[in-house]
Structures are given as structure tokens and as C-alpha cells.
Recover the amino acids of this structure.
């Protein structure tokens, strides 16, 4: 692994260790631990989106559906079939991967806006399924009483335990993703992003890699969905609608989609803004989101993460 | 590199390709023997790049046959043809702009490596060894074209001449037996063109057959063993440089018909 990535990983780990210590001792930000769990869950999805969009150059406006598929599979299997949550999570991954494969093979033949429309349509279809398949999903009102997770007989019943589990998985996924990026597979993805013609001529199986990374990103989203289900204990379709898909893409773009660290930064920033710092705007918060997105796309097309090397240069000079 | 590779014969028979109403290739036949430099020349729009695109599987022909050592490959996908030992460069440079120069060449090693998503994600021992080999081999190919000290730069930041060399290094990294160069000297200055001629000779010494489409006649006449001349999707002449130079059909295609002033 590159030394810059190693340093950033170390920094992130230190931050993650210190954060609960501070948050639990300062009552004004005591609930930040809860928000950080959601940040971690969305980070899982967005690392996959970053691989798909930033590295392979394929867009998806339907990732809320994969998040929802993981969540509902876990929720349904655990409540209606009393399955073990971990087994249900694996089942969710399997089902989501299969759906992603079936959807991905035809839609990834499309490019640009057409791919965006296809994935958007898929997201809407899944959302309708959650709403209408009442006997299975509980319909618009959803269902509750989903059991929490437990590890080796130790049940996770505090925010701190979920915080540790979620961010541990985020770190593992991050390391896995960084390893993939800095390998022949990562290079194949980036090459087909830059010139599909040349990538094909070099023998890269471009369509296979597009589907592979689409399925991988769906798997990340599915795991995130399962964690979400068990943490929240309640599911309804409104948590997995089209607007979530858009928000996820926005997080990745604002943070910087050509860099997986950007996805983490954007997720952290926009989740905190949405849950905490934009409440003063009430329903107008969507305007603030729009302004942020516009500003980033116009002035920082590589995202906020692009500011980091610039800032560190200024720091070293000053 | 691959000095001991078995020779590969390329046969093209009655090849046809049309785009809508335009017939870009009208029943073209020729062969390329191993171990030679073969140039394909002709006026703009003669179908030279279309020929390369059909051979390398960018799009399928409408008729005719292409064979490598007798095995027919027409209609094969580009990635399959790359694996059969035919690599290429592009007329309008197609480097991976946001990747470094070294990474570009490492993509060329893709078909010579096989680590999957799990072994790369977990950085298993075999994958690390393979990754080291990919890097070393890519470095060698960069040095071969003289770009080793550009390795860490972004490909998009190189001047055109070096991007063309980078494409050659990337194509060579696939360990091809036949290398197709599409206007390698386009946009190069005289000194760079001389360097290119030397490079093409060194590629030939590696046991790689070179087929090039080129407009620079000095270069073509200088380095080619055989020349094929195309016009309007057809072959109008084929032979050694000396024969081509004096072929009346070729002169006509390039300069127009000779006018017999005695009739005036």
C-alpha cells in the first residue's frame, strides 16, 4: 500500500478511537456517536459507488435499492423466519449480488445518461416493490421489532458497540478497496474509464469488469443495509427511495469521486449537515445541498478531498 | 521479451466493410509474413484505419476472412485478438490520460497476469509477486522506448511524440507477435521520426512483425520490407519499396493522372 494511504488510514483510525471518548464526555455532542454510525453505514455504500463512478466511470442512480435489498432481506429473514442475523446478512449479500448481476449485464452496455436512467428506473421499481408487496415487506408502514446483532453471545445493545462494529467493517472494506484500486483490476477499471477502445485493445474484458465492480458496489450497499436494519430495528420504504440514491451520488461527488477518500469525506460532511447542522434551514435544506453541489462542481470538480494536498502544501510552507 | 515466440502469419482474404452506403473496404486480400516490416499506404480515406480496426476487432467485417496461422479470427472481440498476439497503437492517441505513464504500460500486462478480485483485495502472496513482475516488466518496456524517466508522470501531460511512444510501449507490454502501428510518425518532428525508425527496427529484432499505416514516405521507403498501397478500399499495388515508387497506379493515386500534353 502507498505510504500516503497508510498515513491516512492511521489518521482515520486514531480519529475513530478518539471520537467516542470525546463525544461521550461532552454532553452537547453526545448524540454525535449515533450520527457517526449512520456516517459509517453510508460510507460503506459510497466506497462502492466511488469504485463504480470515480474509478470505472459508470454511474448508478439506483444504489438505494441495493441498500434496501440488503436491509429488507435481513429484516424479513430475522423477523419472519427467525434466521440468525449474520446468516441473513450473508443471504442479503447473495440476493443483492444476484439482482445486481441480472440488472448490471444489460444496463452496463449503456453509457452516460442512458445508464443513469436505467439504474434510476431499477431503483424506482425496487422501491415500488417494497411499498406494494405488503405481506412480505409490510407495505408503506414497514415493520419493526427487528432483533439487534450479537457477536459470540455478546449482544450489541449500545451505540458504542454498533459504532465499533460499523467502523471496523468500514476500515476492512476500505483496505480491501484500496488493495483492489492498486492492482491490475483497479488499473483495468481506470483504463476503461479513460479509453474503452484502448482498454479493449489491451485485452481488458471491459464489460466483465464493469459488471464485476457494479456487483461489488451492490454487495457493499447490501452489507450497509443489513447493519442499518439491525441498528435501527425498523424498516420502511421511505428510507430507500430515489432521493437517497441521489444523495449518495452527491456525497461521492462533493467529496471527490476520483478518490475513495473523497467518498468518505463527502459522506461524513453531508450526513452531519443533513442530520445536525442544516436544521436551521428546515425544509430549505435541499437548497443548501444544491448550492454546495453547484459550488463543488463549478470550483472544485475533483471534490473537497482535492483541497487536502493543497492545504498540506500551504501548511508545510507556512 | 518474447524472442522465442512462434511465428504468426496474418492472412486477409476478400475483406469487406461498409458504413451505411460507404464501402470502406471492397474485397481486400493480402498477407503478412512473420519477421518483416510491412507498410500500408494510401491517400486519406483509402480505408487503412478501417482495415486496422477490422483486424483488431473494433468492429466486425461485412464479409471476407481474416486468419492467424490459418485460424479464422474475423468477428472476434478486440480483447480476444489481443490475447492471440496482435496489438496496436491508435492514430488519434488513446493513452489512459489520468493514469501515470508506468500504469499505462502496466495495463498492457493485463493479459499476462491473472489475479482476481479476492486475491487483489486481500493482497495474497501470489498477487503481490505478480504485481512486482507486472511493474518490472512495464519498466523494461518503458526503458525500451526511452520513457523510463517519465514513469510517474500523468500520461495526459506528455507531449504528443511521447504519448505515441507510450502507446508503443503499452502495446509491446502485451507480448504481441504482430504489432499494428497506426500513423506512428504523425505529428513527430524529423529527429523524433529518426528515433522511431530505429525503434521499429529494434522491435523487429525482438521477433515481432510490424505492420504500419503511415503517411511519411521517407520513413516508409526507408524501413519497409513490403508496401501495400490502398485507394478507395482496394489494393492497387503491393511489393518492395523500389517497385512501389515507380508504379504508375500509385503515382496516379497520389498525384492524379498524368496529362498527355501532346493532345492539347
Amino acid at each position: 500500500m502507498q505510504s500516503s494511504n497508510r498515513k491516512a488510514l492511521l489518521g482515520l483510525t486514531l480519529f475513530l478511537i478518539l471520537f467516542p471518548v470525546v463525544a461521550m464526555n461532552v454532553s452537547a455532542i453526545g448524540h454525535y456517536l449515533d450520527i457517526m454510525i449512520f456516517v459509517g453505514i453510508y460510507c460503506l455504500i459510497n466506497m462502492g459507488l466511488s469504485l463504480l463512478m470515480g474509478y470505472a466511470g459508470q454511474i448508478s442512480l439506483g444504489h438505494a435499492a441495493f441498500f434496501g435489498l440488503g436491509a429488507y432481506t435481513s429484516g424479513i429473514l430475522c423477523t419472519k423466519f427467525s434466521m440468525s442475523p449474520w446468516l441473513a446478512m450473508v443471504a442479503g449479500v447473495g440476493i443483492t449480488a444476484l439482482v445486481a448481476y441480472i440488472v448490471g449485464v444489460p444496463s452496463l452496455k449503456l453509457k452516460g445518461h442512458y445508464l443513469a436512467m436505467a439504474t434510476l428506473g431499477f431503483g424506482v421499481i425496487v422501491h415500488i416493490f417494497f411499498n406494494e408487496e405488503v405481506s412480505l415487506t409490510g407495505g408503506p408502514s414497514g415493520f419493526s421489532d427487528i432483533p439487534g446483532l450479537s457477536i459470540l453471545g455478546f449482544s450489541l445493545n449500545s451505540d458504542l458497540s454498533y459504532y465499533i462494529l460499523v467502523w471496523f467493517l468500514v476500515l476492512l472494506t476500505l483496505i480491501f478497496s484500496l488493495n483492489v484500486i492498486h492492482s491490475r483490476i483497479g488499473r483495468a477499471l481506470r483504463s476503461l474509464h479513460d479509453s474503452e477502445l484502448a482498454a479493449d485493445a489491451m485485452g481488458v474484458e471491459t464489460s466483465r469488469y464493469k459488471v464485476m465492480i457494479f456487483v461489488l458496489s451492490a454487495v457493499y450497499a447490501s452489507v450497509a443495509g443489513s447493519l442499518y436494519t439491525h441498528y435501527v430495528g425498523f424498516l420502511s420504504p421511505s428510507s430507500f427511495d430515489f432521493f437517497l440514491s441521489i444523495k449518495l451520488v452527491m456525497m461521492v461527488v462533493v467529496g471527490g469521486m476520483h478518490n475513495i477518500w473523497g467518498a468518505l469525506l463527502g459522506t461524513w460532511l453531508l450526513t452531519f449537515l443533513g442530520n445536525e447542522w442544516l436544521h436551521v434551514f428546515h425544509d430549505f435544506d435541499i437548497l443548501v445541498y444544491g448550492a454546495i453541489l453547484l459550488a463543488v462542481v463549478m470550483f472544485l470538480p475533483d471534490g473537497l478531498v482535492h483541497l487536502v494536498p493543497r492545504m498540506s502544501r500551504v501548511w508545510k510552507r507556512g | 521479451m518474447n524472442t522465442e515466440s512462434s511465428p504468426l502469419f496474418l492472412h486477409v482474404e476478400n475483406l469487406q466493410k461498409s458504413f451505411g452506403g460507404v464501402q470502406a473496404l471492397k474485397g481486400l486480400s493480402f498477407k503478412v509474413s512473420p519477421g518483416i516490416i510491412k507498410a500500408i499506404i494510401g491517400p486519406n480515406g483509402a480505408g487503412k484505419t478501417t482495415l486496422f480496426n477490422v483486424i483488431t476487432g473494433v468492429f466486425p467485417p461485412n464479409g471476407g476472412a481474416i486468419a492467424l496461422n490459418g485460424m479464422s479470427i474475423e468477428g472476434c472481440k478486440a480483447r480476444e485478438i489481443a490475447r492471440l498476439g496482435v496489438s496496436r497503437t491508435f492514430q488519434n492517441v488513446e493513452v489512459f490520460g489520468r493514469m501515470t505513464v508506468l500504469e499505462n504500460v502496466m495495463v498492457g500486462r493485463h493479459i499476462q497476469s491473472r489475479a482476481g478480485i479476492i486475491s487483489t483485495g486481500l493482497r495474497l502472496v501470489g498477487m503481490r509477486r505478480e504485481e512486482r513482475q507486472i511493474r518490472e516488466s512495464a519498466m523494461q518496456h518503458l526503458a525500451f522506448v526511452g520513457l523510463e524517466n517519465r514513469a510517474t508522470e500523468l500520461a495526459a501531460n506528455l507531449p504528443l511524440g511521447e504519448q505515441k511512444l507510450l502507446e508503443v510501449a503499452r502495446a509491446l507490454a502485451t507480448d504481441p507477435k504482430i504489432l499494428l502501428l497506426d500513423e506512428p510518425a504523425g505529428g513527430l518532428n524529423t529527429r523524433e521520426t529518426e528515433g522511431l525508425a530505429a525503434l521499429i527496427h529494434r522491435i523487429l529484432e525482438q521477433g515481432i512483425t510490424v505492420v504500419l499505416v503511415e503517411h511519411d514516405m521517407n520513413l516508409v521507403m526507408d524501413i519497409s520490407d513490403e508496401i501495400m498501397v490502398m485507394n478507395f478500399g482496394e489494393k492497387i499495388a503491393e511489393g518492395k519499396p523500389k517497385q512501389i515508387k515507380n508504379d504508375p497506379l500509385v503515382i496516379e493515386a497520389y498525384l492524379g493522372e498524368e496529362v498527355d500534353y501532346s493532345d492539347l
